Amino acid sequence: MFQLFHKINVDWLGKRRFFIGISIALMLAGMVSAVYRHRAHPGGTEAFNLGVDFKGGTVVTVRFRQPPPVENLRAAINQAGVRDAVIQPILDKQGGFLIRVPHQGAEVKEGETQAGVDAARTRVRQALNTFGPEAQTDKTLEADANAAYKIEGTDAVGEVASKQLRTQAVAVTIAALIGMLLFIAFRFEWTYGAAAVIAVFHTVLVTLGLFSIFQIEINLTVIAALLTLVGFDVNDSIVIFDRIRENRKLYRRMNLYDVTNLSINQTLSRTVITSGLVFLSVIALVLLGGETLRPFSLALLMGIIFGTYDTIAVAGPIMVWWERRVEAANKKATVSAGESGTAAGRNPAPGGRARSGVGKPSRAA
Amino acid sequence: MKKRNLLQRSIIIGIVTLVGLYIVIGPHGRRPHFRDLTWSGIKQNLGQNIHLGLDLKGGAHLVMRVKIEDYLKRLTEDAATAAQNAAKDAGFEIKDTKAETSGGNHRVILQVADPTKNKDIREAVEKKVNIGDRDGWSFSSSGNTLAWTLSGSTERTLAESATEQALKIIESRINAFGVAEPTLQRHGAQNSHEILLQMPGIQDAEHVKQQLGTPSRLELVHVVSPPSPSSVQTYNTSEAAIASLNSGGNVPANRRVLPYTERASLTGQETNPGAKPPPKWVVIELPAIIDGAELRTAAAAQSRAGGDEYEIDFSLKKTGADKFGAWTGANVNEYMGVVLNDEVKSIAFIKSQIFDQGQITGKFTKQDADDLVLTLRSGALPAGIQYEEERTVGPSLGADSIRSGVRASLLGLILVVAFMLLYYRGAGVNAVVALLLNMILMLAGLIMFNATLTLPGIAGIILTIGMAVDSNVLIFERIREEMRSGKTIPSSIEQGFGHAFVTIIDTHVTTIVSSLFLYAFGAGPIRGFAVTLVIGLLVNLFSAVYVSRTIFMWLLSRKGRRVESLSI
Fold it and tell me: Are residues B541 and B426 in the same domain?
């Protein structure tokens, strides 16, 4: 058989300070970007580049005599400096298109909508002029023989995802994370669940941070991609936790630190193969999937990279650190209970519960 | 023993695969035909079976306007009735009440008998009805005429909030249809009161239009009639009903004459048109005892009389129940009517005090009752809806993006398959078979749940495929590990599956648990994602574990007892 990894023995946990340092630096960079863009540029760029889904914009209805292919239309609009337009053909009207353009810059305040609509109209017209002149205002497209197209309407559109929906999306995701935490706690330990969820949080934060730094558009599909990376990330963590649980039964003398390293190393070939395969498919999507899908595929790409990394670099160390603290607290409680017999009131909080783990000192009754 | 087990497994897998394939590429709602086996037949069926969403296929584009004029008119009329009642309750004589809504102004006008009491009347009215200065109405009086006029800025605020409310109600109604993932947004300038709805599937759009076209104003009212045991007072014509009011042919502001079709169907579609009783007319008292806003729940239920008739059971909120309880307690033996969309649906006399339960009876079909329940639950639209623009639109992602997306995904899939075959050799075939089966069954699941496939749904599929590949990698790596530790091949396979299975269950159940949260509380794209993910993961437990294992069992049985090598 052909193998990538065999008998690896890397002290992953030994590098935890380095890893945690990188993670904190990445999270800080993202946060600094978001806060700086939000604070330092009032009315300028925002913390995130929200798409038309989130902040509304202008819909331009246009009709062509000779409809160009959608990709040419998109290229022309990009050329004119309008980012992230949504172009939708109108099927029951020959040559018709709906072009949705997000409000440029900061969120448009009430009353300024008209100005935003006019600006968008001018820019779209500029882009469309590359296909030929527009029909004169008083003439229809059919009546003006020289014209290539005509803008038949511009209207402001509100956001698809209202503020309420945005809050709900965040609340629902947190509820889902709590669900995960509970289930992992039920199958493993509280500390494992917490470590996995913290790792997921870290991935989402880093990804959002990168979206802020590079001002990649955030639309509804990016939200779906973020949910996907939550799934990948937890999957990775559980595979390693599962191995730790198994190895703790197998090697009762070995301490948690070594067991965790061993488990990461044992599952490393699986981790590299699975993540590598998903990475391959996602990179195909990033490179060949086209521009409209790019925010979505980039979110997936970042998710798979940081999701794999943080299982080893974040979830493992946090779990070990926490589990050791809990064990130490238990031991202390056991000792003091033996000495004075009045330990009940002195139990530190984390030690005040029964443990179900294997190979750990159990709390004195 | 082993042989029989293998046979049994093969049969189960065969049946599941065939059923899945039929669901995906077979015709639905008609008998299969030989043509269904041709390439074009398969393509056509596939296109019909899988509902693609707005982003992938396009759909209907509807711009609708909330009829704000109607809303303000009704608001003014209700205020006029309430003002008259308030003045009368305070002991003043009112000669005439008018709600003037022409010429862009909305005005409540009271003609009083004694102009010296104007100030007291104003005070009495404004104490009970929200038409004072604070509420954005301006008061004026001349002679024995008192007038309250709605100010322009308040009018705009009211119109704005009515549009927002309409948007919310429409959203809750169309979301109740399932996971079609429509998009709904404000359209046009602030004062245009327009809403833009895009949704996949033209037929669904027609249904939605019909739904939004029917208002659902529910009121429980007092029917003016001598109390039970004498039967309820009805009139054969509306003129006769108006005449009974003795007010010179006019209907006073606190009375209304409404049609009452005994046990009428909502849509007027009778199974036997000849048997339809002629409509009658009744006089009801305003304001209503309670209205639809006080509704807590509504549910369609099969009629107690049996048969195909449906009725609607409802219950009231605390505030509504208090009002309703007080009224029914004080009016035993009086007649009460259930009014839906300005038509009296049923009349019953009050036997004893009722608090929070009631029924709307009538010859509803199941569909009518379900639709009505939906509209009652989501609340009444503040005003009617007018369609300004209707179009069929193409995919919002753009044909170019979809083409390149499909190309990229296929390339990704080919890379995965190639790697599995190269790295795991024979066992790689297992993985590929399991992966293909997984995709077929996942599509079958989506079709069975009538789900709409959108880009977020595809994200769910990507995650599923990732986890499907992962399941196989976990199993194979584990089998290799067991083989390295010197175990025989059958026991390596046994142990490998056994250990990997625990992990696979843990990862899958964790993701399913969190997806259930997303499905239960999420909306739109979040829901679409969760649905595909849950279906995909359940399918994967079957394809990656059960099917893959069966293939190994088959390999072992072919090689006999002494297996010395395994292509993995």
Answer: yes
Q: Which of A78-92, A175-189, B18-32, B302-316 has the lowest mean pLDDT?
A: B302-316
Highest mean pLDDT among A147-151, B14-18, B110-114, B488-492: B14-18
Q: What is the helix (H) or strand (E) element at residue B502, kind and residue range?
A: helix B489-521
Domain co-membership, B427 together with B540: yes
Chain B nearest-CA residue for A266: B481
Domain boundary among B373, B391, B409: B391
Residue of B nearest to A236 (CA): B507
Q: Which helix (H) or strand (E) element contains residue A108?
A: none
Nearest Cα residue in chain A from B473: A270
pLDDT in tens, A13-36: 888 899 999 999 999 999 998 888
Report all structural domains of chain A as residue ranges with CATH numbers, in order of start.
Answer: 13-37+162-340 (1.20.1640.10), 57-157 (3.30.70.3220)
Q: Show the DSSP H helices in chain A as ranges.
A: 16-40, 52-55, 70-79, 113-128, 163-187, 190-213, 220-250, 256-266, 268-288, 294-310, 316-340
Percent of chain B whose pLDDT exceeds 70? 91
Question: In angstroms, what CA-CA distances link B65 with B118, B286, B392?
Answer: 40, 29, 18
The model's pLDDT over A307-330, given as tens digits with 9 standing for 90+, comes to 999 998 999 999 999 988 988 888
| Average pLDDT along chain B | 82
Please check whether residue B538 lies inside any domain of the structure: yes
Q: Output the CA torsion sign for B257, B260, B266, B271.
A: negative
Say whether both B230 and B272 belong to one domain: yes
Q: Provide the domain count of chain B.
A: 3
Q: Tens digits of per-residue pLDDT, B83-139?
A: 888 888 888 888 888 888 877 788 899 888 888 888 888 888 888 888 888 888 889
CB–CB contact A281 B416 (8 Å): yes
Largest CA distance in chain A: 101
pLDDT for B25-41, tens place per residue? 888 878 888 888 888 88
| Contacts with B, A 113-172, CB within 8 Å | 113-114, 155-161, 165, 168-169, 171-172
Q: Are residues B9 and B36 in the same domain?
A: yes
Has residue B296 been placed in a domain?
Answer: yes
Is residue B93 exposed (0-12), middle (13-18) or buried (19+ Cβ within 10 Å)?
A: exposed
Answer yes or no: is B553 within a domain.
yes
pLDDT over 60 (residue B265): no
d(C-alpha B191, C-alpha A113), whole Å? 11
**Where does a domain end: B330, B359, B391?**
B391
Are the C-beta atoms of A165 and A154 separated by less than 8 Å? no
CATH of residue B139's domain is 3.30.70
Q: For residue A274, how many C-alpha atoms fall within 13 Å in the half-sphere facing its CB?
A: 30
User: DSSP code of B100?
Assistant: E
The alpha helices in B199-258, defined as continuous H runs, are 202-213, 238-243
The reply to whether B364 and B457 lie within a common domain is no
Q: What is the CATH number of the domain that holds B14?
A: 1.20.1640.10
Q: Cα separation of B223 and B343, whole Å?
A: 13
Rounded CA separation B62/B60 (Å): 6
The domain that holds B378 is classified in CATH as: 3.30.1360.200
Which residues from chain A sit within 8 angstroms of residue B408, using beta carbons?
284-285, 287-290, 297
> Is B534 inside a domain boundary?
yes
Quote the pTM value. Answer: 0.75
Of B396, B415, B456, nearest to A281 by CB-CB distance is B415
| Confidence (pLDDT) at A3 | 66
B379 lies in the same domain as B407: no
Same domain, B403 and B378: no
Residue B96 shares a structural domain with residue B147: yes
**B513 is in which domain, residue-wise?**
2-56+398-559
Please compute the mean of the pLDDT values over residues A174-200 and round it to a whole number. Answer: 92
Q: Which of A98, A157, A176 sits opposite B514 (nearest CB)?
A: A176
